[in-house]
Amino acid sequence: MSWLGKLGLGGLGGSPRASAESRALAQGPDEDQPAPGNEFAQFGAGCFWGVELAFQRVPGVTRTEVGYSQGNVHDPTYEDVCSGATNHNEVVRVQYDPTACKFDDLLDVFWSRHDPTTLNRQVSDPQ
Q1: Which of 4, 53, 67, 100 could covalently link to 60 via disulfide, CB atoms 3.0 to 4.6 Å apart?
Q2: Residue 52: which domain range?
Q3: Residue 26 maps to a domain
């Protein structure tokens, strides 16, 4: 098995799981908390790979995580989301220290990487 397969990223093009269990919506509040003195911000920009890297380079960002938001399949795989049939958005959650990084700085990074008028809402790496 390739390393992509081991990560659950191989075999694009399959059909999303559609059982009643997989369509169940997550219930209850998100009880995850940022580290003391930090805050969370979440951004959806088409695809999370390049966007996550851009946020990781921002001074004051202490952690990034990628995942999916919205959609109609509970606990989707990367393959499910890439099929285009689940209506999920790929998102990056940023944990940051607001004394070292202002939210406006994060917005500047987001808008430098995300153009809602382009296909897949992404722009090329400015470097």
Answers
A1: 100
A2: 37-119
A3: no
